[in-house]
Amino acid sequence: MSTYILKAMFVIALVLLLEWRVLRRESRSTRWLYFSMLGVSTCIWLYLGIEDKPVRPSVWLEQVLSPLSINNLR
Amino acid sequence: MERISERQAMLIGAGIIFDATLISIPAQLLGVAHQDAWLTYLVAGVAVAASLWLLSRVGSRFVEVDLYEALVTRFKWVGRMVVLMYTFFVFFLVCRDLRMVSDFVNIHLLQKTPLVVISILVVLVVVFIARGGVELLARMTELYLPLLFFVVLILPLLLGKEFELRYYKPIFEHGVGDVLEGGWLAVSYVSEIALLPFFLSHKVFRLRTGLYGMGIGVFFLTLLIALNIVTLGPHIASRFMYPNIELIRQIRITDFLDRFDIAIVSIWLPSIITKIGYLLYICCHGIKRVTPGMSAKQITTAVGLVALTCSFWFFENSIQLIKVNYVWPVVATLFAFVLPLLMFFFLKPKPMR
């Protein structure tokens, strides 16, 4: 778990280090969206680190659309 | 405003169809349609031509702007909803292609490198390219795609001695139904060309441009799958994860050129990275249209990072990517046919008083 937190912190620190000067000049809405996306990204990363069997959107999509799958229609 | 020529738009269309489809779906098409798999892309092409016609008709009503802008300016809230839906669709494509390339590199080139390291490197390049804008992307396509097409064109010459023309026969052994099923699977990839009018105005992307681009992409995909059939045979080729790579491995020109696949992959990789760059650009472009005052260029890195984590979250492994292909045509149909049809009927400029 701690490795996942360290990796996430390292990547975010690196991104902010490289982008902060340009980002500072941007509008407030751009900065907000930027930081929220970094937050979402970190949360997903940590979720993948914590959960042994995470819920995966593609599996869910596959289950929902399985009646229309070509394998089931044949 | 960034400007690109019609020729560049045509190449972008061909690249969007060709680059990712090479490693994603040929084995499944061969499994479904067997020796008639070479017809599947043609079937998909005919269907997608109808979608391009619809989008071109809608685009001709808003000559100066792309369809994202037309949607947002014409219908304030519903338009934004539709743009957001397309943005999520494209975001899923970014994640899928990103994971597909990372898996491919991990399986074939860098077996001992962790997948996450490969993905980070790919995202880094994609973000830098996408930030350069559509002009830079178009120039990269102009540089690498013709080279890739040239390599595919000379493949029949290099593989000639391996050909077994009997693998083609009997034609329609399992009926036309299998070809149509294969076409249904192929539609999900060929229809990605329908995304072009959403970031290119009608001045650049006309019906003719779209059809030429699609024609080129479909031609080269058909050529490759036909080579797979006559070289490897439909039964063996359908059991490979990446039949096209196995096809290239059959090339043995002399003793010193027995790994010709590395040379070809080195041309293909920049092309697929450019394709992911387009998708990332369209994604950021969509976010910009939904939230005015936003800088699409500055949020590219953040969107790239979310795509990186989502590519690990959405797909457990490369098998999952293949499984999704069986249901993905349903989603692709919504975005390539149903929504364009609704736009055709409802998206019109305000009547002049």
Q: What is the string of SSEs of chain A from the N terminus onward?
A: HHHH
Q: Specify the CATH class of chain B.
A: Mainly Alpha
3D shape of chain B: globular
Can you count the beta strands of chain A? 0
Helix content of chain A: over 70%
CATH topology of chain B: Amino acid/polyamine transporter I
Shape of chain A: elongated
Return the structural class of chain B: mainly alpha
Instruction: Give the integer mean of the pLDDT values of chain B.
Output: 92
Unreliable segments of 5+ consecutive residues of chain A: none
C-alpha termini separation of chain A: 44 Å
Largest sheet of chain A: none
Main sheet attributes: strand count, strand direction, barrel closure of chain B: none
Overall structural class of chain A, as computed from helix and strand content, comes to mainly alpha
Separate helix tally of chain A: 4
The Cα radius of gyration of chain B reads: 20 Å
CATH superfamily of chain B: Amino acid/polyamine transporter I
Ends distance of chain B? 30 Å
Radius of gyration of chain A: 18 Å
| Chain-averaged pLDDT of chain A | 87
Transmembrane segments (chain A): 6-23, 32-50
Keywords (chain A): Membrane, Transmembrane, Transmembrane helix
GO biological process, one term (chain B): spore germination
Subcellular location (chain B): Membrane
List keywords for this structure.
heterodimer, A: 74 residues, mainly alpha, 80% helix, elongated, B: mainly alpha, 14 helices
Commentary on this structure:
Chain B: The chain crosses the membrane at residues 12-32, 38-56, 77-94, 114-131, 143-159, 179-199, 211-233, 262-284, 296-315, 327-347. Chain B: This is Spore germination protein. Chain B: It is found in: Membrane. Chain B: It comes from Tumebacillus permanentifrigoris. The complex is a heterodimer of chains A (74) and B (353). Chain A is an all-alpha fold. Chain A has one domain (2-73). Chain A is built from four helices and no strands. Chain A starts with a helix and ends with a helix. The mean pLDDT of chain A is 87. Chain B is mainly alpha-helical. The model of chain B has no long low-confidence stretch (mean pLDDT 92). The interface between A and B is medium-sized, with 33 and 33 residues.
